[in-house]
Design a protein that fits this description.
By secondary structure, the chain is of the alpha/beta class.
Amino acid sequence: MDKNILIQGIIQLKREKNAVILSHYYQDEDIQNIADFIGDSLELAKKAQSTDAPIIVFAGVHFMAETAKILNPDKKVLLPDWKAGCSLADGCNPKDFELFKSQHPNHVVVTYINCSAEIKAMSDLVCTSANAKKIIGSIPAEQKIIFAPDENLGNYLQKETKRELVLWKGSCVVHEAFSLDKLIEIYNKNPNAKIAAHPESESHILKAAHYIGSTSGIINFIKTDPAAVFIVATEAGILHELSKAVPDKTLIPAPTTEDNSCACSECAFMKMNTLEKLYLCLKNESPEMQITEKLRIEALKPIEKMLQLS
């Protein structure tokens, strides 16, 4: 179907059904352009709470739509492509994690929001990359901690908080794809540039960075820092909105080890959502995110604790 026809169809359906479209920064540009709100996963789930719309279309990945449903049980939450997963969430199986927990008794469990409702339900606290240091810091110094599922973020937190964490061995395929050699090569060509990296990246990339922070943190850093050139080590989708906000600045996506056409890191799961799938999802009100009330309540507890702390 023609792109313009799809866009008009989505706008019409959105109006008819009083729906709201939430788009993660990593979505395709066309989806970001048509969204009501663009943000990171928790920002968007919270934004969903503040809207009166009975239907939420979450253009993101599975765990994000699930988190939106946990926070908005009375709203219909739709995900354009049900198979849009996440290497972090998919790499932390509830049965395996239950065994992992049993091997480390008397540990407080802190999980990164990039995990399933089942994993959240087994947690004491949930965190985002933006508030992770604060969440770890809220736990008494003598208390032992399990951190899951992102090992790279966990290693970064150990250095930042000076706390020993028992880490689950999980990673984000997008943030593990960056090439240090190519990054240095680009930096040598742009010696006045500043490197901004997401803490899901590997430690050798973080060591090279001038700024380390969440998606929102990186955006704010680039908006406010006086530098004219930035090399950005996170999913390249954030450059779309950011380039509009800072048209006078040069944004270079950090290069990957792959010799691909983009030469930047893109999340294949995020890009599974398309305008056509978004249109059909609104039209058919499917696939719909469902979660049992028992699981929802258990998964909500650590999220609420996080929101109180941050």
